[in-house]
Design a protein that fits this description.
- The complex is a heterodimer of chains A (112) and B (115).
- With 112 residues, chain A is mainly beta.
- Chain A contains no helices and 11 strands.
- Chain A has strands at 5-7, 10-14, 19-24, 29-37, 43-50, 55-58, 61-66, 71-76, 85-93, 101-102, 106-111.
- In chain A, the strands form 2 sheets. In chain A, strands 2, 4, 5, 9, 10 and 11 form a 6-stranded mixed beta sheet that branches.
- In chain A, a hairpin with a 4-residue loop joins β7 and β8 (71-76).
- With 115 residues, chain B is mainly β.
- Chain B has strands at residues 5-7, 10-13, 19-24, 31-38, 42-50, 53-56, 65-71, 74-79, 88-95, 105-106, 110-114.
- Chain B is globular.
- Chain B starts with a strand and ends with a strand.
- In chain B, 37% of the residues are buried.
- Classes of the chains: A mainly beta (112), B mainly beta (115).
- The interface between A and B is medium-sized, with 23 and 20 residues.
Chain lengths: 112, 115
C-alpha cells in the first residue's frame, strides 16, 4: 500500500499566494523527502527532512514534520508560475525493506 | 555533471517485441533505481542496485522484465515480450549513498508505448 498520501490531490492558487501541501504516512520513518515533477520531466529533489528534525527551509520552501501525527507539510511561499508542477512526498522507512515509497502527488497550478 | 542520462526518450513498439531501455547514472553514484510511472499506479520502484548488485527486484512485474548493471556507469531494463499494459514512463534514478533512502536524482524518463 502507498506509504505517503498527499493532500490535496490538486490545488490552484493565484501567483504570489502561498501553497501548502500535506503528506501523511503510516509507519515509522528514517526520513521524508519532497520532489517536484514538471510535466513530461523527471522528478527533482527539493528537500529531505530527517525523523529527528521538525522543520527545514530551502529558499521559498518550508517543510515541517510531525512524527507523532505521521504527517509532513510543504509550504511554497510567494508562488510563481514556474512552480506549476506535481509535488510528491517520499518516505524512507526505519526498518524492513528500506526503500523510498512515493505518494500519489499533489498537482499544483499557479494562475498568473 | 550531465545528470542521469536515459535513452531512448521515446519508444513506440508493437506487442511482442523486445524493448531495451538504457541508463547512465551520475558518475560516482553508488545506487541505481528503475521506476515506472502510470496514471493508474503512480510511481513504482521496479528494481534497485547497490554497487552494481541487484538488491531488491520485488517490484519487477513478471519474468518478462529483466534488469542488468554490468558496470557502474550503465544499466539496462529489458522487456521481452512487451505488452500494451507495459506502456508507461520509465525513470532511472541514481543516488550517491549505498542504499535506497537517500536523495535520488532522476533522469528525464523513457516514454514507452506498446501498440
Amino acid at each position: 500500500s502507498q506509504q505517503g498520501e498527499e493532500d490535496p490531490q490538486a490545488l490552484s492558487i493565484q501567483e504570489g499566494e502561498n501553497a501548502t501541501m500535506n503528506c501523511s504516512y503510516k509507519t515509522s520513518i528514517n526520513n521524508l523527502q519532497w520532489y517536484r515533477q514538471n510535466s513530461g520531466r523527471g522528478l527533482v529533489h527539493l528537500i529531505l527532512i530527517r525523523s529527528n528534525e521538525r522543520e527545514k527551509h530551502s529558499g521559498r520552501l518550508r517543510v515541517t514534520l510531525d512524527t507523532s501525527k505521521k504527517s509532513s507539510s510543504l509550504l511554497i511561499t510567494a508562488s510563481r508560475a514556474a512552480d506549476t508542477a506535481s509535488y510528491f512526498c517520499a518516505t524512507a522507512p526505519n526498518f524492513g525493506n528500506e526503500k523510498l515509497t512515493f505518494g500519489t502527488g499533489t498537482r499544483l497550478t499557479i494562475i498568473p | 555533471d550531465a545528470g542521469v542520462i536515459q535513452s531512448p526518450r521515446h519508444e513506440v513498439t508493437e506487442m511482442g517485441q523486445e524493448v531495451t531501455l538504457r541508463c547512465k547514472p551520475i558518475s560516482g553514484h553508488n545506487s541505481l533505481f528503475w521506476y515506472r510511472q502510470t496514471m493508474m499506479r503512480g510511481l513504482e520502484l521496479l528494481i534497485y542496485f547497490n554497487n552494481n548488485v541487484p538488491i531488491d527486484d520485488s517490484g519487477m512485474p513478471e519474468d518478462r522484465f529483466s534488469a542488468k548493471m554490468p558496470n557502474a556507469s550503465f544499466s539496462t531494463l529489458k522487456i521481452q515480450p512487451s505488452e500494451p499494459r507495459d506502456s508507461a514512463v520509465y525513470f532511472c534514478a541514481s543516488s550517491l549513498m549505498v542504499g535506497a533512502t537517500d536523495t535520488q536524482y532522476f533522469g528525464p524518463g523513457t516514454r514507452l508505448t506498446v501498440l
